[in-house]
Fold this sequence. Notes:
The protein is an alpha/beta fold.
Amino acid sequence: MKKICYLADASNPHVKKYCNFFLKKGYDISVISLNGGEIDGVKVYNFNANVGELRNKGISKKFGYLNNIGEIKRLVNTIKPDIFHAQYASSYGFLGSLIGYKPFVVSVWGTDIYDFPRNGIIQKLIIKHNFRKADYIFSNSVDMAREANLYTDKRVDITYFGVDMERFIPLENSKDDGFFTFGIVKSLEKKYGIKYLIEAYEKLYKKYNGEKDGKRLRLLIGGNGQEREALELQAQNSDVNDTITFLGRVQPEDIVRTYNSCDVCVFPSLREGFGVSAIESQACETPVIITNVGGHPESVDAGKTGIIVEPKSSEELFRAMEKLMLDDKMRIDMGKSGRVFVREHYRFEDNFEDISKIYDDVLEKYPINK
């Protein structure tokens, strides 16, 4: 049985997606995680380094997870995987590069390639070092691949996460007929630009006195994060506080119903490696408004499944929200086209079969256990 060892956060849903797919392919899967987590059928080794809590610490504390490198190296050599894959180019990528096991695959996810190497010369050198040590480099979008190629001349394979089209589906009778609903499900972090959505929504609400064809306007904001308190304060200080609902963290079993409850989903990100939330929403036949940043535009067929606006512009958001609110035919057609678009380009099984073919290439070039 072929073995894969992931250096990755075992609590992350995309890591779980990787594990579940390749378990079904017959691989033996291990995950070495710095942030805990459990995955059915997978041996997870937890080192609980709390990498997220160290994000804003000094550079020496940020690399505290390296204290575990000796134990992790012994563990990897004991597992002896056929594929050693770091899911994140900075922390996990650096750890994997220092272990020196081959074949070594590195995936870039977003902030690890957009932000980390720009935080200082040390960080830039680390990313270059990690890519030098990597035998394969994966990226979750074309834009991130271009960004990765600022630090390496190596080929970067595009490996989308994809959407489970059997899970993310349109649901009948999921919308409240008394409301016209705008929504977002996202971590409440500054980089996702949610304050601009609140500003745009307030302007729209005031222009139409909070109604559209007898339906009351409302805004649903799902997620938690460092900006929650500031966003709640912004809402409280607005004239539309009673029509904005903070849902908190949306549980996985509730996320499909949440997308379906919205007439339009709005994702006003200031930075975005791709647009997983946008393709999930479109799979549910809910049209989207997204921003022209990073790999975000790759997640829509502009003008057919959603509208793209410039970031940091509540005015552009307002106009796009108004357009989709007023034009019922456009909104419904975009929703139906969105599901077709996602099925054609981002169907989970198709995207992961592409990854499986790359893994086959890895195994052919590096026949460790033959």
